[in-house]
Amino acid sequence: MTVHSAGTLPHHSYGGDSAGLVCGYLMQGSTPALPLDSIAAAHWLQAHPQATPTVQGGTPLGVAAPFVWLHFNLAHAQALRWIQRHAQLPDAFFEALKEGSHSTRIERDDDALVGVLNDAHFDFAFEPFDIATLWICVLPHVVITARAHPLRSVDALRTAVRQGYTPRSSVALLEQLMRTQAAGLVDIVRGVTQRIDGIEDELLAGRLNHKRARLGVLRRLLVRLQRLLAPEPAALFRLLQHPPTWMGADDVQELRDSTEEFSVVLRDMQGLQERIKLLQEELAASVQEANSRSLFVLTVVTVLALPINILAGLLGMNVGGIPLADSEHGFWVIVGILVVFTAVAGWLALRGTQDK
Fold it and tell me: Which of 208, 230, 226 shows the shortest CA–CA distance to 218?
């Protein structure tokens, strides 16, 4: 079996090796994780078939059993075939892959944990569509994760393992993955908050500059994140109440704690959505007020020009009997009449706005 030492970890591209394996590690308690390629992982799984640890009162006895973490690129043609041939996973995992389910959940299937997690792309650029799905299956001896696009949380977990982090059990790896994902979400929320702060400062300074479109993009992003990343409460509740027999009490508690971290981040997202909604309403009110002022100015100009237009139309009729036609001061009399009527019309218009 080809096992690399921790210090000679080969560089894996995001595309994976010949079997679509992006990275693989053998976890052995307190010792550093050993990198595996697809051939070594197949040999290890063949030599270590699934076995349920002896438990007493829900807590495993003795030292935690070793397990492997294998992360696959589903865009590779051989990845799914390798998993089906060597991993011996439950049908629920393959059904979730086939259905393309994107609803975040972690549920129990007999003695396995099957989960669907959503996370931001590795090169996340604050766009609502930069979200991808990670499918995961957890057994006592193996953790299989699969994705079609590079994800932030998985890359952060790979970096932690490279730096010496070794989870004590397969469930601890799942819990760490969820915490890493929650930490990534905190960074996204922090970035969105900074953008909203900038837009709010410009709004208070009176510089609109079409910020409503930017606020709409940020709000759609938060809505999509909340809709895709919030775990299904029913499935999670059933899992925490009736975990598999091989899960220890510490694992159940840490899994519950990691879900609570998700809840905190999701509540922060809800608060940001409400804040964006208020800013959008403020922007809409500002735009409406500016439009009202423009309409008022146009109305006043129309009212002031009304006497001139009416009188000019009357005096311009080509009929006999037009008054002051033979008077040498007729022009100035008409001008005086227009000035008086225009002043009265302006006074009435301005007084109406002051009464409001």
Answer: 226
Residue 334 and residue 312: Cα distance in Å, rounded?
10
Q: What is the CATH number of the domain that holds 143?
A: 3.30.460.20
Range(s) of the domain holding residue 155: 6-51+62-283
The token pair at 75 is: 């865009």
The pLDDT of 253-272, averaged and rounded, is 81
Question: What angle, rounded to 10 degrees, do the helices at 249-315 and 233-241 form?
Answer: 170
pLDDT in tens, 34-93: 999 889 999 998 887 765 444 444 444 334 678 999 999 988 888 989 998 888 888 888
Residue 16, phi-psi category: left (phi > 0), alpha (psi -120 to 50), beta (remainder): left
pLDDT band with cut points at 50, 70 and 90 for residue 21: very high
Question: Coil, strand or helix: which one is 183?
Answer: helix
Q: How many domains does the chain have?
A: 1
3-state secondary structure 242-306: CCCCCCCHHHHHHHHHHHHHHHHHHHHHHHHHHHHHHHHHHHHHHHHHHHHHHHHHHHHHHHHHH
Phi, psi of 252 (to 5 degrees): -65, -40
Does any domain span residue 324? no
